[in-house]
Design a protein that fits this description.
The protein is of the alpha+beta class. It is built from three helices and ten strands. The chain is globular.
Length: 176
């Protein structure tokens, strides 16, 4: 190869490499991160940007005459936070509370409303990234209460993960 051909080949390689870098960067920018957790052996995910913190199970004060899915409230640095047991809300079979049971504190803001709520889950699992193309619409089957909270489905590491919509979960859709 002469010098001009070598230089041309180098330029093509540099251009190709820059396109790959731009594509990777663009794909990374489009991705969302999800925190996954387990309930009754099934894996669920929430947009990690809505997760404020994860707390161990305990120190929950019950509220008299509350709906069955409301476990009670916790005091989070001076803020009273309602705690919802997703297993009850989703009509899953009862599960005991153990050392793996956690409360995921969610914070969602719209232009008009800011809401904080804790959700009880069996255990926290993992964090992963998804591009919009990885997320599939839930199948249209007999709609249950819990189906209202499903944002989509994704296969991650060979497992199906049910992605939840934190705004709908925190009942913000009517306020914002």
């Amino acid at each position: 190869m002469d010098t001009a051909t070598q230089e041309h080949a180098k330029n093509i390689l540099k251009h190709t490499a820059s396109l790959v870098d731009q594509t990777s960067e663009k794909n990374f920018e489009d991705q969302k991160q999800y925190l996954t957790f387990l309930m009754q052996g099934e894996e669920y995910g929430l947009d990690i940007l809505s997760v404020q913190e994860i707390r161990g199970w305990g120190n929950i004060s019950p509220i008299p005459n509350a709906p069955a899915h409301v476990s009670g409230v916790i005091n989070l640095r001076g803020t009273i936070v309602p705690v919802i047991d997703l297993r009850v809300l989703f009509q899953l079979s009862d599960s005991s509370y153990d050392e793996n049971t956690v409360v995921i504190v969610l914070k969602v803001s719209t232009q008009r409303v800011k809401r904080i709520m804790g959700i009880v889950v069996d255990a926290v699992s993992d964090v992963f990234s998804l591009s919009p193309a990885d997320k599939k619409s839930p199948p249209s089957v007999n709609r249950s209460v819990s189906h209202d909270f499903i944002d989509g489905l994704a296969e991650v590491k060979g497992k199906m993960v049910i992605l939840l919509d934190s705004e709908r979960l925190l009942h913000l859709e009517n306020h914002g």
